[in-house]
Amino acid sequence: MIYRSKSFNLHRPLESSGLTRANSFSGKWSKSFNIRASIVIKEVSALSAHRAVEKILNETMDDDWNDIEYSTLNNETRKWHDRFCQTKDILSNILSVSEGLSMESPTELSMDRSRELFFVAYFRSVPVGALYLLVTNNGRIPEVVYVATHCGIRNCGPLLIESAVNKSQQFGTGGKLKLFPLEKARYAYLKMGFSNLNLMMQLVPSEHPDKWIWNTNTQRYKYNFI
Fold first, then answer.
1. Which of 15, 128, 150, 183 could disulfide-pair with 123, CB 3.0 to 4.6 Å?
2. What whole-number distance in Å separates Cα of residue 114 and Cα of residue 127?
3. Distance between CA 198 and CA 40 in Å, rounded?
4. Is residue 22 predicted with pLDDT exceeding 70?
5. 87 to each of 104, 137, 148, how far by Cα in Å?
6. Would you say residue 64 has pLDDT above 60?
7. 75-102 and 46-55 helices, crossing angle to 10°
8. 208: buried, middle or exposed (CB in 10 Å: 19+, 13-18, 0-12)?
9. Rounded CA gap, 159 and 33, in Å?
10. What is the pLDDT of residue 179?
11. Alpha helices (H) in the chain, listed in sequence order
């Protein structure tokens, strides 16, 4: 997951063909903007994940978002270009995994093995991010293998992680997660409560009650955007 310097213009209507690049900056977003009111996270099948990620790559985040000449970039736009390319690489990996799983027969999918789960983030019904979670059958901490969100949207990644945390809780592993992040993304995960364990990072939400609020009624964790 990578945090971005540019963002969608939330006051601009969306066309059915996808999301258009806006000239707004994340720092100019209204402080009253409620990310939870605009972003919906759904757990989906491998086939649905494949279709959603394919839409992100081909429509929602097409090359119009990166229509710049690399040799003429300043530091700001060079970082944007790098994030754009890294995001597309991660989404391409999710696309490949979901395609392979969607082609498996029901018998193969029902075999006693690791569970491979997908979550997709939607902004006004348009897919803008995805997460691939691996849950083993031996009680080990679930692993976020891949997670990426549209390079023009903010605070969507924590909501995907929140869904993975609650899936971990559901499987009896206390909401714990592990992942191997891109080096540039480590700060974002540290901000969410992850700890460094060499190359790996691990989250124990119960150790960060200021960031991860436990609701005894719903039996779910909620990430606190502070």
1. 128
2. 26
3. 33
4. no
5. 27, 30, 6
6. yes
7. 150
8. middle
9. 15
10. 98
11. 35-38, 46-55, 75-102, 106-109, 157-170, 186-191
